[in-house]
Specification:
Length: about 270
């Protein structure tokens, strides 16, 4: 793996998103592809199918399967991905948070709605990164879209359910209802992130992002997102059920996530 350039690191910190071309070798991509196939053949209790029956296509997601699927564990804790995360977060000890599989089959009408991941999670802190790995060519028409600089807005939004786009709660201290798409897209420039296999899109947990469906696309869009946290991240209780729905297991607000569920990788 090549070292990230200073420009790439600065772009990530300023825009909250950066496309890193050709960071992963064929062996890593094949391992992730095998992991996704195993995951879809044997989903966990946390899996979802977001596309209604007879609507066209399929939008499948599942997460936190790395402890039973070695392909995810190896990819997440060794090789290029943790090193990329460490360089972007500026730490020699990145902690693996979880992996998330997102597959849109050909002809899927269901989009990924605008959202930012941070409110869904039971952690707080600015040292974090999602490494979005696509196993297929993703043209601009169905590519991930990110709102540049939105991780630095200081605004946090009540998460919406992907199934029907309804808010988890009506009101919460420190959070506001999600804006309309028109208002949201007026907050900054939208960066579209087409990719080829081997590219990595890195984005911050607070970066607002979305993705179209694959309605007019003939191929699957197979993605695994590997999420890492850094030195300032701590456990926090949300006024809604988090996603993933991790149990505290003795963690209280302000604690470091120093346990086996969230392994630290020493670079």
């Amino acid at each position: 793996m090549r070292e990230l350039t200073a420009v790439e690191i600065d772009t990530y910190r300023h825009h909250g998103v950066v496309v890193l071309p050709q960071m992963l070798d064929r062996g890593t991509l094949d391992a992730i592809a095998d992991g996704i196939a195993m995951n879809m053949a044997s989903p966990s209790i946390w899996s979802n199918d977001y596309t209604p029956k007879d609507a066209g296509g399929r939008f499948f997601d599942d997460y936190v399967n790395w402890q039973r699927i070695d392909h995810f564990k190896t990819s997440a804790t060794t090789g290029p991905l943790p090193r990329i995360a460490g360089q972007l977060m500026g730490t020699k000890r990145p902690r693996f948070f979880h992996e998330h599989v997102l597959v849109k089959e050909p002809g899927t009408v269901t989009p990924t709605p605008w959202h930012h991941d941070d409110p869904y999670y039971g952690v707080d802190g600015m040292d974090n990164v999602s490494l979005w790995v696509s196993l297929d060519d993703i043209p601009e028409t169905i590519a991930l879209r990110c709102l540049a600089g939105s991780h630095r807005l200081g605004r946090r939004f009540i998460p919406n359910r992907f199934v029907d786009d309804s808010p988890y709660v009506d009101a919460a201290s420190g959070f506001e209802r999600f804006p309309t798409v028109d208002e949201l897209e007026s907050l900054g420039d939208v960066i579209t992130c087409p990719t080829s296999p081997g590219d990595v899109v890195a984005f911050h947990f607070r970066t607002l992002h979305s993705a179209p469906g694959t309605k007019n696309h003939r191929h699957s869009r197979r993605v695994a997102s590997f999420r890492y946290i850094g030195d300032d991240v701590r456990w926090v209780t949300r006024p809604w059920k988090t996603s993933p729905p991790f149990e505290p297991n003795g963690l209280t607000d302000g604690d470091e996530l120093d346990e086996q569920r969230f392994p630290t990788i020493v670079l």
